[in-house]
Batch of 2 targets.
Target 1
Amino acid sequence: MPDDYKENDYLWIKELLDYPVNLGKRLGRFDDTSQIKLPDDPIDCVIFQDRAKRAIRKIAQNKGHILMVGRPGTGKSMLANMFKAVLEKSMGDYLRPKETIVAYPGKDRNHIRFAYEHPAKIEKIISDLNTAIETAQHSLDEFNLCDQIQSTRKVKLALIFATCLGVAGGFYFPPAFIAAGITGIGSIFMFMQENNHRAQEKIQRENNGGAKNDVKHLHDMVPEVLYDPRKDQDLMTRISEPSARNMKGGFRHDPYQSGNLQTPCHMRAYLGAHAKSPIIYIDELKTLVKVGYMADLLEIMQNKEYLLEGGRSTGSGAADRSENYLRADNIIVACCNHDTLMYLQEEGDGAFLSRIEDKGEIIQMESAVPESEENVKQIVQYVKQEVINLAQEFQEAWGEVIEKEGYESVRKRSEHIYGRSLPDDFKPTVREFTKCAVLEIARELRCRSSDGKLCSILRPINGIIKAAEFEAILEGSALVEPRHIRQALQEHLSLEGGFSKEIGEHKNNLKKYIGSMTDSIGYVVGLAVIDSKSSGQMYGQPLPIHCQINVGTADTVVAPGKIGDIAKAAAQNVRASIKKVLNKIGAPYVGHEMYVEYIQAHGGVEGDSASVAMDIALVSDYIKQPVNQRYGVTGSLTGDIILAVGGVTEKIKSIMDPSLGMEGACIPWLNKYDVEPLLINTDSEYIQKEEIPGIRIFRGNGQKDAFDIYFCKTKYNVYKILMGLEAEEVEARMVERSKKDLAFMQNLNSDTGATK
């Protein structure tokens, strides 16, 4: 229909051809990334997250909490590190703990007390206590039997004196000799006893030369230093799997629980992040929810203190407790995905989110950002940062080898890694990116998003940049060129990408086979995508569709196979659209049975982006008009109007391989800006088929292998491209087919009545 397009529509399509030049201007003037200077502010190293960076600066000013919500790879961890760096530089001396946390014995063997002391003071106290205990341990008196020896010696001398008297008296009184004999024997015994005491004293002195006092009970009373701020200077603790053990602390198991060898509980205590770290970074909040620590965290965030308790219900530390509270004035920096956020909104009426918003902010990380001039310039900065990071990795990997053995040894060792000979000038040093190579990165970021935005899931792009660097190094290129980026994209695939590549090869062969074996009536090449959950990338693939319309007793549509609810609804909408046309053109009513088949779509189909393709295939079968199998089509059909769909850039890329034999595609007018990335580093020109505007992209050098993309507003525009028919001719042939079907049904009914 000529009035589908206005004069400005054609100007807009022509302006698309200026996109590569305009993008180059927005990138700035440089030949390669060696001319790029990085910002001094560490927070500005995170790109595409301007709103998050502004929020972080504000929160850092107020020392509030942060919850960052977004997909993996959007820069949450980097922002957390930058948040720490900003606080370190601005208020680190005031945030960092200055007091030592000390544990003392409590009221009984299962309780302890905490104290906060100046490190030097408590160090001196503990040193003095240990010195006093050591002195007491070695303060043993020397073993002696002086008293026993002295008393024995006195008795011995008295007996000797009595013996002498008895001998002297015996000359005058003979019985006195008997008494002298008895006392003599007694003196001999006492002499032996004295010598026995002396020998025992000598033996004991020799055996007890290294003896010490038992002072274990004194050691068990010495305070235990659980945290020394002089040894732990880091402001932030990263917790990847939060639990009561690493967040609050606890009591270790005591293997010496009997025989008076047990370890007192204050020496088995240890502290978690709450007591030691001013900033706690919870890398994945989902794990905290799974382990059931949320209730404890909410209480600590509210009270800013907690009691240290034993862990499991069994074990030596189960009954251990602290008598007083530990301080816990932490700044919580947490990250989660959208599914966890939904749980937090329902759990406890959003209690955790309320705590965050009370002293901070919930930051929504951008998965895609507008292609503004500021964001485009950040692409260059991002590539430069990755080049610097890779240079550091090379230094860590090969720095020592280069220093000791030189680059020749690096080349020989690398040959063992790659399993082939390498150029003599091979050096594992980074290459800067040319401006055209940066444009390829920008192109890829656009391809991984839609609506004219740049994808901000950058972690997978890091791998592509590194792979391109290695391609340039192995080739011996001085700079990273666009061809290195394209080669890296071919090899650096996600799990879904590798799976999609295999399916794509199968679909390509299937498409070629169908095109050679059919008359193309009722067949159309639809376009589909597979989303990668890890990288956020979409992988396009052709989707052959076959449809039939048979005259029947009722209006039905059958779409067998594993298709989703949206795809089923799309099939019903197509049926309604065709019936609407039949009513509009005054075709006689006849019931039709419509069949839709997604050929070998074993993984299932969901979405409404194939509704235009279904309409084309059904109309083709209805009027028996072949469909051009060298064109793909995508779009969401609403009445006669084609609406935008997702993944158009990747859908087009999936059929642009010249070996597939495809010549073009029809896409929704509203998706016209999704063609812009395909124009980077290629030759292109404006085309027009009657009133339908389009762009021709040359896939080969020298303007060879043309690929035409047409921007369609209505399904009649697609009829013109794929079947070569105007709307009036299509409608006329539909009326003709409807009359034939009516006559067929009337004849069938008359034959049935005659038979009866």
Target 2
Amino acid sequence: MNFQEFRERVNVVLYSSKGQVLSILKILNLLVSASTLVVLAMYYGFPNDSETATLLLSWVKTSFFFYVFQYVTKVLYEFHPVQFIRKTWFECLVMSILIIEGTSDLLTGKLFIGGFIQGLGVGSIQDIYTLFIQGYFFTVVAAELLRQGRILPRFRLNPALIFILSFFGIITIGTVLLMLPEMTVAANSMAFIDALFTSTSATCVTGLMVEDAATFFTFKGQVVLLLLIQLGGLNLIAFGSFLMLAARFGLGVKQHDVIEDFVHRDNYNSGSSMLSKVLLWCLGIEVIGALALYLSWGPGVTFQHNGSSIFHSIFHSISAFNSAGITLFTDGFVNESVVQNWSVHWIVTFLVFFGALGMVAIFDLFDPARLRERMAQPWKKIDFATKIALYFSIGLVAFGAVGFWFLEQENTLSGMSYFGQFTTAIFQSTTRTSGFSTVNIGTVGIPMLFLFIILMFIGASSSSTGGGIKTSTFAIVLADVWRTIRSLDHVQLFQRTIPEILRSRAYSVLLFFLAGNTIAIFLLTITESSILDMPDRGILDLIFEEISAFGTVGLSTGITPMLSNAGKVIVILSMFIGRVGTLTVAFALGGKYIKRHIKYPTGHTMVG
């Protein structure tokens, strides 16, 4: 009997128990990973004596042993183990790391890979990949149970409501973590309202901060901020894949137009592959950005050790690409150590621009398959949606840069070289979708602040991490206005006719955005009377703060820490609604879809 025949006989014997055993292991996996995440929160979030720390770490090591045991069990149950390992190559890689580290810990009492990386000057790397591994298993197993179980069919929720709840869940977890004593340098834990504000700002990739991220948070707290930014930025695209899964359980596509705001119609039937592609591209761009920043800090920036330099590079790359605008420099890029580091400014500019461009446009422009197709067939052009995202993004950057250069020539640009002025103007115009700034926004003149409000109101492109009404909405409304002025029969843009449903949606977004900002500004004038009473503050500061929050931008004239608790709640709601989208909220509150075929007689009235 050869080995293959022996394996076949073993599999035949084991086959009857395969389903039951694997189902039990999945449930145990979920319980183990969830409990381990709680243990890690206790370990990293609270001060522990040596005995307690050893006990908590023992549970973490036990969970790693369970993961290896589970994976080996799944391989044994497979009729084609080699194909299974190839299919689950990433999980196999994680298992290999756990086996190497576990063996090294048993034989030497030290971690092999963690020790090697620490030798390069990167501290606490095992802490980071420990959190990653636990989070990975918890997410994967939870998603698998939802996909194969009977949970989703029982709850036929509006997909917009599911999307809102997913952000709410991330914000809630982030708030709890930021309130742990070890996350900040404060004597006591962070106040609930401040933790909620910070968690919302990071998850909604806004960047408004009530505390200085560089000095108020410990390294552990900064890691939490980083994870919230990454999860918040990716959640928008990841939810598109989830909607495709949810459609299997009765969430009809035709019943929910909001789905088209999350996923491109051409990719609708390939949710998992699209999600994998998005993750790989996002992480790839962030890695390239982090490497570029690491090589560009220069002697002007002093780090405690090489690991700190690497962490700063990763943090700012992720923050820039996800349009979060949170920095680890006091006063941001206005800090004297980086204020004239033009190479860093340009790297951040490109990261913010591509993050605001949107993944659909990035795939269309840079996907190798698309590039080869256009080279082989030159008559094929970029998609219509890509043209809107690309041309209007470039146009808005150019418009904002020229405006900043003219309006701030004798103010914030004074004393800079011509290249410095050019770089600063482009940087500030591009970062209309993020909270980064290389000048003190509080000193910017009123005309430019007003122009910033317009740029923040328009915001980034669809399928991106930026906010605002989006360039697509702005383009459609502009095209409709042009049709009205020219008395054209149809709304046309880039030699395409805009359907009525898109025009209706664009005007709905515009109206909701105007109404939401108007109500919030009105409430802020009531709650923030103390700010209005200040001699150097006025209504424009509140308007700027609100538009920045609702557009998930993060620029501020400096009043964020001055907000009252009521004002913080208003800004929190603005950031949340601005992140998930006004149309999404409208669909969630709109109730059950009812299709009617009734058409009333045409009405006419004077307009204007």
